[in-house]
Hints:
Elements: H1 3-11, H2 18-40, E1 47-51, H3 59-63, E2 70-75, H4 78-87, H5 89-93, E3 97-101, E4 114-120, H6 129-139, E5 140-151, H7 153-156, H8 171-180, E6 183-196, E7 202-214
Parallel strand pairs: 1-2, 1-4, 2-3, 4-5
Antiparallel strand pairs: 5-7, 6-7
Amino acid sequence: MESHILASQLRCPAGAEATTVAQKMNETNGSLNRKCIELLRPTAFDSVLEIGPGNAAFAGEIISRADNILYTGLDWSLEMVAEAAQLNQHLVTQGSAQFHHGSSDRIVFDAGVFDKVLTVHTLYFWEQPADHLAEIRRVMKPKGLFCLAFGDRSFMKDLPFTPYGFRLYDATDACALLQSAGFDILDVYQHLESGLSNAGDPVEKLVNIIVCQALPKTPQS
């Protein structure tokens, strides 16, 4: 797949290639997703929102962490929402999971709904990141946990598809964005692994995982 087409598919899987791209992302990001789930520490009766889950291959792992967890997936790819609902039909039927089409800069939920929020490899595509973070904070309960994971600029800049619509960050950049949006940084982890990029090339990956807390709203914030 040509680099500019792959970049577009990573941003929003669509058409005949969507299923294949989603499967490849699950394979290349599996260990990272599981690390994020571990750091998010889902507990009984948590309401968990995942932004950009693709086909939500890891939803079941989140739900199985504790009793009575409610998982919500929000993705801007219609194909991925449909595939996630099909792949996780048993979870939908039992009332443990729901899937919605939309963007995280206009989240279709009331304020203060979610205990935990997770997003992996989506930050690059947010044209106005402050808008996305403001919405995420709005729908979170006070002191809820937010886990944000993204590839560090240091290795992402050399990938063949990132010149096509990716905005790259390092941990310092992302922490500044989060703090400006009303989040308290609790921990910054560096996830290192050798593997294949989404283009199929061998790569040494450095991924930043930031765990932060939504600060309570004040009249000024």
